[in-house]
Amino acid sequence: MANILAADDEQSILRMLEMHLSLAGHVCFPAKDAVMARDILARETIEVALLDIMMPGEDGFSLAEAFIRRDIPVLFLTAKTAVTDRVKGLRLGADDYILKPFEPAELLARIEAILRRVRKGEAPYEDTRLQVDYQARRALLRGEEVALTALEFDLLALLTKEAGHAVSRETLLHKVWGYTYIGETRTVDAHVQRLRAKIGADAVETVYKYGYRYQKAKEV
To answer: Do 109 and 137 fall within a single domain?
Structure first.
């Protein structure tokens, strides 16, 4: 699962991207132009950007620089076939490009390849209570492996990546379950209770009328 921004001025392509990315388990943030894309970038944690080159107003080349400066991988979506345009995009620092029209399966495969490369060096989380290996999707509680469902692991991963910081119920619902709207937050509460039963009730603190916070274990 990843947070992916898709910027394209063609609504049909945006709808197609949102559908296929969601089916693959990703969260898609659609943007019809660079202004909307920059607004999303300022509010959300984006892991991959899919950018159309030819958009009204600011084009994809200029927009890409905002993502590249933050070390966010960029994949260009373009109908242009000129080699010079492809070379320009790669020289800017883009990770890849795909020519329109494209097969969704090919696009998803390229995104997965980018994510594998980017996440390869993602460091595990560790404190005196818990170890979380994001790559292997394993959690150890005081040295013993914890049996977690896929959703429970995704919930724990997000909370530990934000250890010490409060995460809202809506953010958890959006990023773990992939909902693109504010859904039923009791779903989050129920899963947090199950997670607490496995790693300890004191590990995940309730933040009143907001959400939850993973509490780092104190040094002994």
So the answer is: no
In a shared domain, residues 69 and 88 = yes
Strands 74-78 and 96-99, sheet pairing: parallel
Q: Which residues form the domain of 182? A: 125-214
- Assess contact for 81 and 103: CB atoms under 8 A: no
Quote the tokens at residue 85: 């345009």
pLDDT string in tens for the chain (220-residue length): 788 999 999 999 999 999 999 999 898 999 999 999 999 988 887 889 999 998 989 999 999 998 988 888 999 988 766 667 777 777 888 888 888 889 999 999 999 988 888 777 678 999 999 999 987 788 999 999 999 987 898 899 999 988 999 988 888 887 777 654 445 678 899 999 999 999 999 999 999 989 999 998 876 5
Residue with tokens 């029209």: 101
Structural domain tally of the chain? Answer: 2
Whole-angstrom distance between the N-terminal and C-terminal Cα of the chain? 35
Q: Which of 119, 138, 173 is the last residue of a domain?
A: 119
